[in-house]
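Troubleshooting: if your tokenizer reports a length mismatch, compare against these two reference records.
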Amino acid sequence: MNTLRVGLIGAGGISHVHAAGWRELGAHVTVYSHDGAAALAAAYGFAVADDLDELLATVDVVDIVTSSRSHRELALAAIAAGKHVVCEKPLAATSEAAREIAEAAEEAGVQVFPAHVVRFFPEYARIKQQVDAGRIGAPAVLRFVRGGEAPRPGSWFFDEAAGGGIVLDQMIHDLDQALWLAGDVSQVYAVQSPPSVDGIVPPQVTAHVVLTHTGGALSHIQGTWGATGMAFRTSADIAGATGVLAIDSAIDTAVMVDLPASGQTDGYLPPAAHAESPYTTQLREFARAFAGGPEPRVSAADGIRAVLLAEAAAESIRTGRAIDVDLAAAAAVESVSVNA
């Protein structure tokens, strides 16, 4: 089989887990970034592209690990060049942009996968298998908690206009989990404390989102960006008529991910463990799909739906109202002509 040629765009903290994954999979990787490309390439033995056009001319797949607001422009450029795309969550900063990416890919005949890596954590994947097998009956109440040290102070993560904010950047993982485990959602209610000021999220913040699923289940999602040194922790509890499934990273350390010892990852990422990184597992599944294998467990439509929920949560936080949503209609992708 030919070696997969991957173009990695971005050299920030999250780039290292993607870089480690592609290296483990034996891909030939070229890096392009406004800052840090040479250092990242040197750390992993990759090549460097001087500009985006050079990158696109030499790769089969583009992996976007930049700030959320830039995802649309970069994904559309890659798609216009006929390249498959992996894009860090969220797929785009808005659901409109996410739909545009998916529709452009459909028209171009290439594949786009959002990197919703929590689906690839072994414990979350086993919960999904057990729910689908009917072990606890239909999910009735789901509770997800995710929290840890906040991102770097002053970074784009806190700027809601730049695609940041705790709901869109951090809690989107568990919004996606709720959809994966309990299905479509009809209503979203959310609160945030302290509130954002002029679109800037406070340096320490907690948000709560309640999802009403069309099947009758309720999902409660809590996210926290805490003080420096706050330990990263996640948990999930899914209750049905015949039992409860639960995981907690403080108890079962297998949910931790394997991070390179680069010293350049942000503190809000999970701590290291010795098991295979879910990021590597995720990229392997995407690579197989690009080579004509089975579809991965996450799709572009999933990426759109998660962003739609994050938008509804943001509207609820702003207005204090519960927001009705129709994800099936809003996330439907049609093949249309898109100008990149």
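Reference record two:
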Amino acid sequence: MLTDACDLLGVAVVAEALDCASELASAQHACRYGMQFLSANGGSVTCHRSLVVSTGKLGDTVGTRFACVFVAAGPNADDVCNGLAHAAWLQRVRAAGTPVRFLAADTVNDDTCGSEHISARVSEHDRVMQGSRAKPRLSGAMKAAFEIIRDDIGEPIAREALHRTVSVHVDTILTSIDASISTADKVRAAGRWLKRNCHRPVSVADAAHACAMSQRTLLRYFQACLGTSPSEYLQRARLDLACVLLAETSLPADKIARRVGLTDGGRLGKLFRRCIGKSPTEYRAWQRARTNGLQTIHASERPLEIDADMDATQCAAA
């Protein structure tokens, strides 16, 4: 999401890192990142240094599910949080479970680096100074891109993508990330990786490798941090995905089993009977009967009539 006078440097770093990760992972994973540029009113947005970017309108994305939302805020970052259009849209995407990350605005006064002030030959001192100005602007974007790629595809590809995207301060920033990540953080990252990749035939060893842990360490701390074993966590993620597919599609059990990382409908049936007490077919019938019952109730309900004298608090409660 772009705003007037926002700094595009962090946006460019995130976009290029995700694109690079897609290319690096294309041979091994089905993960492919796509990006949309949005603004409150759509159309052209004038960013920092008068760069103009064409954007879509926030209101036109109703029903669209995003994996993550980045907000490139300008100098008046409070306007994003307090503006009616921005705040309402961000509230909706957060309610859908979408993480929202703010890319730090350019707080460094680098107007002297404008094109009208740059000489044809830049001294080594000037290059160092420009790099130091860019570091605080890059670090937040680099960390955000690193965490997303690491959770989706794995840490080795996340590191390589950032190295290929930018060369300034990459090792320093990655070292600071390593220092701040505790064992519990890595275990939670492994859990997120298992959930996001449960549709593939992945293993606990794959999750440990993706989060730069040994399988032994992951097995030792997973139960303490997440309350279950990695294998059970993976099975639960597959079960949740299968429930959604059974409720929302007409796919047969064998196809659903393959789409959730299981080999056949027999394994899916055993998982359902063990965890839910129903077969996949019985679960689908139960869900559809439940949905049809709710639709009948909604159709018979009278529209909510709000008294004009009700205050805002009463309306919200209603």
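Descriptive notes for reference record two:
- The mean pLDDT is 75.
- The beta strands are 38-39, 43-46, 52-57, 69-72, 100-103.
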